[in-house]
Every structure is written in C-alpha cells, then in structure tokens.
Amino acid sequence: MLSIRRARVRWRKAAATLALLLVAAPRLARAAPAPADTFAYDIVGDVNTLDPHWQYDSVSHTVARQAYETLIFYRGTSVKDLDPLIASVVPARENGLVTADGLRYTFPIRKGVRFHDGSLLTPADVKYSFLRFLLMDRAGGGSGLLLEPILGLQSTRDGQGRLRNGVFAAADGAVRVEGQAVVIELEKPFAPFLQIVAAFCPVVSKSWVVAHGGWDGTAATLDRINNIPKESSPLHEHINGTGPFTLESWDQKDKRLVLARFDKYWQGPARLKRLVFKTVDDPAARPERMASGEADATMLERRFLPQIESLPGVTVEDELPLFEVHDAFVFNQRIDPAGNPDIGSGRLDGEGIPPDFFADADLRRAFAHAFDYESYIREGYRGKAQKARGPIPAGVSGYDESMNVPAFNPARASELFQSAWKGKVWLQGFKFAATYEQGRTDRQLACQILKRNVETLNPKFKIECRAVLFSTWLSRFVQGKYPLVNTRWVLDYPDPHNAVQPFLDSQGYFAKATGYSNVRADRLIREAATELEPDHRNALYREIQALAAIDLPAFFTVDTYAVRVYRSNVRDWAYNPMLDYGYFYPVHKEGP
Question: Which of 345, 354, 420, 519 could potentially form a cystine with 362 if both were Cys, beta carbons 3.0 to 4.6 Å apart?
Fold first, then answer.
C-alpha cells in the first residue's frame, strides 16, 4: 500500500495576507458562504462532457465519478488495494475469479443497485457499458485502455479510419454475461487490468440510452457509437448512473455544474446534499473566494500559496504524491495547416512555420536545451520540484533518476538551432503560437520561460504564448492544430505503461495527434506491457526512456507534488493520487 504523507497545516499571520483581505473586503461583505450541506469546488478548466465513456479529461472524469460507478474502486488512500463496487467481489486468483493464466476475469454483479431513474441494474447493463466504451473509441478518447488488453487492438479503426471487420463480434465474444456475473476474456495477460477497470468504463443504463436515441448494442448500428462527436451522445448533457449524486444543473455558459444527492443510493445517502463545481480561471479570485467561504476547496498552483496558506480556517496540504507527467512540452511533427492561425504563413519565411517544422530532431533538441528548468522550479514551485527524467514520473515503478536528459544549455541550443533544417531556421527565423490551458498559470510560466530564452538566442525567433479554453484546447489538439503545447498527463492507473504509451506509442494519445512514430518504441512498449518479471520489465522501461531522450517527441520539465487547499471544517476527504480531484461520497462539513 502506498503510504500517504499528510502534510503540515500552516497557520501563520502575514502582512501580505492581511492586505489581501483588506483589498477584498468589499466583495467579502457581499459573498455568501457555501451552505453546510454543500461542497463548493473552484476548478480550473471547464467540464467537457457528461458522457462517462466519451470523456477523457480529469475535470469531466471527476464529475462523472460522483454520479457513475465502476465494477471495483480504489480503497481509501491506496493505489494498490481495491474494493468491490458494482461487482460484489474483486476478482483474484485466490478466490478463483481470475484464471491461472491471467486471461479470464469473472465479476459477480451486485443485486439491488438502482439507476437514478429508479430502474434496476443488471449484468446486461454491465456488458453493454463495456461494449459501448470499447466500440465508441472516439479520437483522442480512452477506449484504448481496454481495447489493448481485451481485444489486442490500439483502435477499432484501420489506418484509413475504417471500422475493422469483426470488431463487434470480437468484443461481443470477449465480454459475456453468465448468470449474475460478467466474464471478460483478455487477449493477453495485462498486469494493470483491474486498476483500469477501477477507474474506467462505469456502468450506464442500456434501456435509458436506447430510449433516448443512443446505440442499441448491435453490430448493425455501430455508426451511432463509433467515434461520434460528444454532442451526438444522449449522455452528453444528462446523467443516469448509480452513484451517490445525480445532475441538478449544468450552466455551460457560466461554467457551473451542480450535482444533487441521490437519496436512493444503494450504500445510503451521501452526507452532502450538493456538489458545486465552478470554473474560476482567474488565480487572483480563488483565494478571495476561499477567504469568503464561497468555495470549500480550490485548485491552486504552488506559486500562489503565499496568498492563501495563512488565511484563518483554511487548510493547505502539501507534498502529496502526484502520479502525473507534469507540464510537458509536446511537439507536433505533422501540424494540420487548414485554417490554422497558429503557424502564421505556413512557411519557413520568418512569418510562420511549415506543418513539418518539428519533424527535425535537432530543432526539438534545441528547444529542450533552451528551457531553464531550475528557474521554473524556483519561480513556479518554490523549490518543491525536481527536474523530470523522462515520461515516467518519480514514485512510479520504472522511474530512473540517473537518466541522461537534455539540460538548460543556451550555447548548445544555439548550435542546434543553427543546424536545424540545414541552417534555414537560424537564417529565416520562425513565428508560431505555443498553447496551454486557460487558467493554468504554471503552464503559462513554462511557456513564458521558453519564449524568453528562445527569443534571446535570435531576434528572428518569435513565439506567442496563448491560453485556450480547456474544452476548445482538447478538440483542437486531437485535430492536430497546435504546433507546440504545454500540457500534463494524469496517469489513468499506477503503472509505467500508462506514462510512456501516450507519448511514445504511435497510437498513444499525444503521439497519434502529433505524428510521432518509431517502430522500436512501439515494440518495446508492447513487450514491457506484457512482461511480468519486475527486473526485466524495469530494464525495458529504461530502454524506452533512453529512446525518449534521443527522439524527444516531447520534453519533460519537472516532477512535483500535489497540493490541496480546502476549508478546515471539511471532513473525511481522503487523498488518493489516482482519483484526481477527489471522491465526495464520504465527505461532510462540521460547523461554520
């Protein structure tokens, strides 16, 4: 079990904080604290969709986790131990529900569980949910997490985007209902399979989805589900799960979503009556809302902690484990130029860049050597971070602190810029936009540091740092529009495969959207995923990370810790690094 270190709670008075409160006083006088039965969470980034099988971002996933349920779930603070949820037992070799070869998993399904519309959950709903998740397979989505172990596929579509023959029959045969149980047959052993099931493929009501115009679960209507836009799903703006909360309202213009307690929840009603998720992208507004009591918790980067850590009635937890590839710069080697303002003229003429600008390895290395990692750690993290050694973050098996990766070296960066594109980059210059998620000031700072250092090397080099609304950023990134992005990858499960595959596998989330492909990387990643001997597996991941340092489809900035900021009357909000921003069924508040 992972040991969670509870951080120190800091309570010191500071003149700067007092000044903040005085400045904010007129607003605070008007602000209404969140009611005692309501948990108000100020988030960064907007909710992308409510469909639990389409979504693949942390904010949307956090909302869905409160309303939908998976077969099994993480136990408390552990990233290893699992508890039954929709399943009545966690499958294991010891209880006979996992076969000795690791290929057959049997999930007995709990009886008496009701959806929010009052209907009873059945094993048929579980099978339908797995097939819907596998076969939806929307571009940039999470279906590949289970396609790989269950069907041995990275995608349901071929290289031309056509649905593979027999894919429905394969899925239908791999996921079966046997009495009150659902049986899943894997194509190959896959060690982290249960960890994926704990976080993905929550159960939806087949009858509800079909009644509202969704997929009917047959091969004949696969066009209603495969790679559909989110707006085509009946679950995009609606919720009908089995979890402790259900949808009350979603104001997409105001970026405010409210979940209400489901009083007939099978484990008993939650102690909170409502959860309110409010997007507050302005970092200056978040401490003010915490001070007034409008928010019970807020997402806040470490650099802003001095504004909040000494507020009375506020708890700051720091140095919490963070299983995340944090603030990486990802290069697009195959930019879609159609109507794309981010590449300027679209040519290497000093007023833009061509679509294959970052296909030059020397150019990618030049950018990696131009980034001042220590300044980023000092300015953005108050020293509480370390230079990343590759895509596998510290704390995850396979991490190698001795890995040789590019370091800040302006002289070397100049040499590489001068050799890139046979000298044309240095002579002509370039102009493009580097993007990051709106409201994420840590990524803004990273872009500004890169811009400053690159532009210092040559006055012909121009980079625009641009913030983009999260939901817009997601769709345009998958379309291949952005030349260079600063982003993160929250591990879907605590295994190194999920750290390297998105960046280095040709079918991975980032690699596929940015045109990176290396046959050797694909082979090593697949070999490591099925290797069960720990020493050999770690050796394979060292080789994969060494390849990442040479190819540099992305460069990785820092490994850091998680920080949580919440009001001190919040109780039973356990921290688990695999549950993103929390699970609120046990949470309650005491006193004012």
Answer: 420
Q: Which residue type occupies 586?
A: P
Residue 21 pLDDT greater than 90, yes or no: no
Is 13 a residue whose pLDDT tops 50? no
* pLDDT (0 to 100) of residue 31: 66
**592: confidence class by pLDDT, cuts 50, 70, 90:** low
Structure tokens that stand for 41 in this block: 């969470």
Whether residue 548 sits in one domain with residue 524: yes
Question: Do 111 and 250 fall into the same domain?
Answer: no
Residue position matching structure tokens 């299983």 = 323
Predicted confidence (pLDDT) at residue 237 exceeds the cutoff of 50: yes
Taking only the tens place, the pLDDT of each residue in 129-170 is: 999 999 999 999 999 999 999 999 989 999 888 999 999 999
Side-chain-side CA neighbours of residue 206 (13 Å): 15
We report the CATH number of the domain holding residue 82 as 3.90.76.10
Give yes or no: residues 548 and 567 share one domain.
Answer: no
Single pTM value for the model: 0.85
> Which residues 6+ apart lie within 8 Å of 286 measured at CB?
42, 280, 295, 298, 299, 300, 304, 308
Separation in Å, CA 179 to CA 126, 185, 391, 531: 12, 16, 43, 33
Q: Which domain holds residue 152?
A: 68-231
| 461 within 8 A of 421, measured Cβ to Cβ | no
- The answer to whether 109 and 180 have CB atoms below 8 angstroms apart is yes
SS3 of residue 545 by DSSP:
helix
- Which range among 302-316, 349-363, 396-410 shows the weakest confidence by mean pLDDT? 302-316
Tell me the residue type at 572. Answer: D
Nearest-angstrom CA–CA distance, 489 and 217: 32
Query: 19 or 224: which carries more pLDDT confidence?
Result: 224
3-state secondary structure of 402: coil
Q: Give me 420's structure tokens.
A: 């890139």
Total number of domains in the chain: 3
- Distance, CA of 574 to CA of 588 (rounded, Å): 12
Q: Is residue 63 part of a domain?
A: no
Q: Where are the extended beta strands (E) located within 262-323?
A: 274-279, 297-298, 314-320
Cα–Cα distance for residue pair 590/296, rounded to 1 Å: 12
Which residues partner with 566 through β-bridges? 297, 315
Q: With CA atoms as reference, report the closest residue to 471 among 40, 143, 56, 41.
A: 56
CB 542 within 8 A of CB 286: no
